[in-house]
Amino acid sequence: MNISVKSLAESPGLNCIPSIYAYSLTSTDPPAASDLQDAIPTIDFSLLTSPDPHLRSQMIQELDIACKDWGFFRVVNHGVPESLMNMVIEKAIEFFDLTEEEKKEFEEKDVLDPIRYGTSFNSKKDEILYWRDFLKIIVHPEFHCPNKPLGFREVLLEYSKRTREIVKGLLNGISAGLGLDQDYVEKALNLESGLQICAANLYPPCPQPGLAIGLPPHSDHGLLTLLINNGVGGLQIKHKGKWVNVNNDVPCSFLVNTADQLEIFSNGKYKSVEHRAIVNNAVTRLSVVLANGPALDAVVEPAYKLVTGERCLPAYIPMKYKEYLEMQQGNKIVGKTCLDRVRV
After folding, report:
1. What is the pLDDT of residues 304-335, one digit of tens each?
2. Which segments constitute the Fe2OG dioxygenase domain (predicted)?
3. What pLDDT is attached to residue 339?
4. Fewer CB within 10 Å, N or C, the chain?
């Protein structure tokens, strides 16, 4: 593995980045807009799962608009205790604070290793390295977790269970918003055995933040991604051609974005959203992301009911989720190039 960004950032007297980290934004890259921050949709999970059909129907409609117009939204009133969310952040920080020797035990070898620690995105393929260290853990259908730090396993197990309930509720609402049966997505993609990966991302302070990037523009491989962080900004999403700064400043909320398999399944009605992580020179940013996808052996294609009739031809070819995942994780990360490979 290349040297971790954390140990590089902690090098005494570091005032410029090694050239391998020099990532230049192109001149065509639109500047970030912060005035849209307040426009990001908010989904009240308690209303989405309400027994009152009117309240539920209204929230399904709002969720449909959020997926169509933004591919990104906040989720509030979801029932996951704030103390548990904070503990997940705390344990992830404790993991990155372990010695390099201790972390090396979990060094990545294969993209489907149940636990993998590394730096950049795919340091074997990346021509430019990204200012980020990561820990990726497969937590479902089988649960895995590093044996350090103490208590990490119990916290992550509870967190992954609780968040799967949120994902199920959101996908039921999305299913209804697409005009399908509520459990259509759940059954078609075998969500009971769906893949859930927890990724903790560490972005240490960077002496030249304008020259480096935490993660370049990309979309995610699964259905829905849930994100929390330590209160430090750095996430930007692309909305109508502009980069929007997103701060997780709503207490006890999740940031959720639509991912590639949902774009395929909805036959392009919902687009996976491009996003990136920028860095700063003052404080460490840490995010914990849960990527939620179909079962690995599920073949993902546009929902049958959405492509019946001459005017609604499938826009994507069927592909097993496992193959898509290996294609995305095993290559360089560039925008939505993986999705382009399955377009008709």
Report:
1. 989 887 667 899 999 999 999 888 776 666 67
2. 190-294
3. 86
4. C
Q: How is residue 241 annotated by DSSP? A: T
d(CA 84, CA 107): 27
Spell out, as residue ranges, where the chain has pLDDT lower than 70. 1, 25-38, 122-126, 310-311, 330-334
Helix H or strand E segment including 228: strand 224-229
In the block, tokens 């390099």 appear at 100
Domain interval for residue 267: 31-340
Q: Residue 65 and residue 219: Cα distance in Å, rounded? A: 19
In a domain, 9, yes or no: no
- Say if 3 falls within a structural domain: no
pLDDT of residue 28: 46
The answer to whether residue 21 sits within a structural domain is no
The CATH number assigned to the domain holding 205 equals 2.60.120.330
pTM of structure: 0.93
The residue written with tokens 């509870």 in the block is 158
Q: What is the pLDDT of residue 344?
A: 87
Alpha-carbon distance values, 1 to 22, 58, 119, 249 (Å): 19, 50, 8, 35
Contact predicate 64/71, CB 8 Å: no
| Residue 39 Cα to chain centre, angstroms | 20
Count of domains for the chain: 1
